[in-house]
Amino acid sequence: MAFEDIPIQRKLMAIILATSGVVLVLTCATFLAYEFSTFRQTAVRQLSTLGEIIATNSTAALAFDNQTDAGEILRALKAEHHIVAAALYDQRGALFARYPVDAPERFFPARPGADGYRFADGHLSGFAPVVQVKGSQRLGTIYLESDMEAMRERFRLYGGIAILVVVVSSLVAYTLSRKLQQQISRPILALAETAQAVSDRQDYTVRARKHGRDELGLLTDAFNHMLEQIQAQNELLEKRVRERTAELESANDELEAFGSSAAHDLRTPLRAIAGLADVLLDARAHLPPAEAQRHLRMIRDGSAQMSELIDALLAFSRLGRQALTRQTVDLGQLCREAFQDLAGERSGRSVDLRLGSLPPAEGDPALLRIVFVNLLSNALKYSRPRAQTLIEVGLAEDQKESVPVYFVRDNGVGFDMKDADKLFGVFQRLHHAHEFEGTGVGLATVRRVIERHGGRIWAESLPGAGATFFFTLSTAAGAE
Amino acid sequence: MALTLLGGAGALARAQTPPTPEYQVKAVFLFNFAQFVEWPPKVLGGDQAPIVIGVVGDDPFGPYLDEAVQGERIGTHPLVARRFRRIEDITACHILFISRSEAGHFESMAPRLRALGILTVADFDGFIRQGGIIQFVTVKNKIRLRINVEAAKGASLTISSKLLRPAMVVVQEPD
Lengths: 480, 175
Known about the structure:
The complex is a heterodimer. By secondary structure, chain A is an alpha+beta fold. Chain A folds into three domains: about 5-165, Beta-Lactamase; about 235-320, Signal transduction histidine kinase, dimerisation/phosphotransfer (DHp) domain (Helix Hairpins, Orthogonal Bundle); about 325-480, Heat Shock Protein 90 (2-Layer Sandwich). Helix content of chain A is about 55%, strand content about 15%. Chain A has a five-stranded antiparallel beta sheet. In chain A, strands 7-9-10-12-11 form a five-stranded mixed beta sheet. Chain A is rod-shaped and about 185 Å long. The termini of chain B are far apart. Chain B has one domain (about 1-170): Rossmann fold (3-Layer(aba) Sandwich). By secondary structure, chain B is α/β, with parallel strands linked by helices. An eight-stranded mixed beta sheet of chain B has the order 3-4-2-5-6-7-8-10, sandwiched between helices. A two-stranded antiparallel sheet of chain B has the order 1-9. Helix content of chain B is about 35%, strand content about 25%. The chains are: A alpha+beta, B alpha/beta. At the A-B interface, α2 of A face α2, β3 and β8 of B.
C-alpha cells in the first residue's frame, strides 16, 4: 500500500517514529563513533604509558644483561589481561626477554620495528625505546601488544545499551505518539466520520465535534456551517415542496369544485333558456305575443346571467395568473373607495360604515381593492333585510395572531358555523339564488387574493346575528 | 709527563694481555654505571664537565672501553676513559676500575677513594670486603653485580634502586 493511502493515524505515527528513530540512531551512532575514537586514543595512551613504565623498570636489566630480571619485570604484566605479548630487545635488536615466557617465538617480531603504536588486525601493538638517561644511549626496545579485548567488551556493552535505549525509546515513542497523534487525528477522523455519515445516510442533521480552536477547529466549524446551510436549504426546499403541493392540491380541489359548480350553475340558466325556447317553439301553444315577448325577455336575462357568470369566472381565473405588485397601501383609503364604488348597491338604503384606523400595509392595491369591494358588497347583500345596515371595518384586537388582523363585520343574516368552510369555495352558496343574487365567485376571489398575499381569511357568525370576516395579509412565519 | 707515562703503560698492557669478550661486556657495564649512579654536584663539576671512567693498573679492556664511551654522553656530560698507573695517581675520576694488578694496594686506598666520591669497581675476590662498591662476579657464565650499599653511601653516591634490583646487595663486612 502506498504511503499516501494508509490511514492518517498510522501515517502520523510512522512519521513520528521514523523521525525519533532516525534521531536516536544518529545520536547513538555519533556517540559510539566518538567513543570509538576516544577509546582508541585512550588505548594508545594507556599502552604507551604502560610501555614507559616497563621500559623505565627494565633499563638496569638491559644495561647489565640480566635476562632473569627482565623476565620478572615483564611478568608483572600478568595484571594487565589485555596484554597478549610483550618483549624486550637489547641494544643490538636481539630478543632479550619475552612475555608470556611459554609463548612461541613467532608471537614476537624478530627485530624491533619503528617506535610508536599502531592498530593492526584488531590488535594494538608497537615499540618504544628503553632509555635510562634522557639524551643518552638507547639501552634497548620494548614491544607491547594489546588484544583490545577491553574495547571490544566496552563496545559490546555500549552496543547492548544502545539497542536497549533504541528499543525502550521506540516503545516510549510509540506509546507517546499513539497518544499525541490523536491531537491531530481525532478531529480529522471525527470530520471524516461525519462526512461519511452525511454521504452514507444523506443525514444533514449530524454535526462534527470541535476539539480546539486551531485550523482543524476552523475546518470543523466551516464543515458544520456548510451542513447547517445544506440542512436549512433542504428544509426550505421541503417546505416549499409542501407548500407547492398544498397549493396544487387546493388548486386542484378548487378546479374540481369549480368544474362541477360551474357546470351546475351554468346549466341552471341554460335549462331555463332551453325550456323557454321549447315553449316558444311549440306550435300548439299559440302563445299570445305579449307572453311570447316575456319568454324571450326571460331568455335574454338568462343569457345575460350566464355571460356575467362567465365574466366572473374569467376574472377569477385571471387572478391566479396575474403578477403581484407589492407596495405600501393605505387600507382605510381603499376601503372608502370601495364603499363609494358600491353606491349603486346602497341606493335607497340606510347604510352606516364605521371605519376604524388601519395601519399602512404591504400589498397589491388593485387586488386589495377587489378584496374590500367583495367583502363590502357581501356585507351589503346579506344585510339587505335590515332596516338599518351597519358595516364595521377595523383592526381586530385580542387576537392570537402576531400580524395585524383586519375585520369586516355586518349586521346581516349571518350563516351557520358548520358551513364556514364552504364559504370561500367557487359557486359555494349558502343561500338560494332567489334569496340573494350573486355569482358565488366573490368570496373565492377574496380568498385567492388574501392567499396570494400570504395571508389567511376566516369568518365567524351565528345565523341571524350578522357575520364577521377576518383576514391577515401575511403570516408570522411567512413574513418574508 | 704523567699522561705520556700513562699512555705508554696502556699500550704496554694491551700488548701484554689480549682482551677477552668478558671484558667487552664489563666495559659496557662500566659505561652503563654512569647512567645509574648520581654523584654530588661538586664531584661532577659543571654541566659540561666530563664523566671520567678510569682504569688503574694493567688495562684488561683493550679497545673495548674506548669503544664503549666513544661519543657517548650522559645528559650533558661527555664520557672520557682514562688510565692510571697507580691508585695514588688518581685525581679527577668518577668510575674507577681497579685492575687485578692493583688488588694488593686497594684496601689501604679505599677510604681516600671514597672521600673523592669515586665509584670503585673491580672483579677480584674480597673487593667488597676491602671497601669496594661494585664487584663483578661470574655466575653460570653470566656477569653479575655485588653492590656494597654502605660503601656507596660512604662515597656520597646515590645508586639507582633499579641497579640494585638485579644486583646482589651486601652490607659492608666489618673491616
